[in-house]
Amino acid sequence: MPATRTLPTAARLVAALSLGALGWFASDLVRPLMPEGTAFGWFNYVNAILGLLCGWFVIGSRAGRGMTEALANGLTGVLAMIIWGFFLQSFNLMLKQSMENRFDGPIEAIVGIFSNALDYAQYLIDPMLIGVLLIGGMICGVLAEAASRRWS
User: Fold this and answer.
1) How far is Cα 130 from Cα 124, in angstroms, rounded to an integer?
2) CA 142 to CA 150: how far, in whole Å?
3) Secondary structure of 113-125 in the HEC alphabet?
4) Chain-wide mean pLDDT for the chain?
């Protein structure tokens, strides 16, 4: 295993910080798309932390392979952040619904996670949000690649 797969690198740091910032910014874009009265709580913080983690582990670990790969790595990192975001936010809603006794059993609650994720996805089909995530992800990948070339 190469040492760069386990050690902190500048590319990992840049990828984590840039994707974390993108996660925060995208969270701000999501707020007006959701129904009025939605309680967001730690929404921005959770998504920024997901961005940090996906940037570090997904984009940063793959930096240094060229600009074409950097674009693909950025898109992969954004997709991972979106999938984890849907899962965590849906899981959180499922827990709240479970406390209100909306499910008859654990299997129904697990199915509820995916049902909640589909409900969230319907609100988030917005060209501006999708464009920001796609372009932002590619920029994150390119920034990580530039950091890898500059400081490795």
Assistant:
1) 8
2) 12
3) HHHHHHHHHHHCC
4) 94
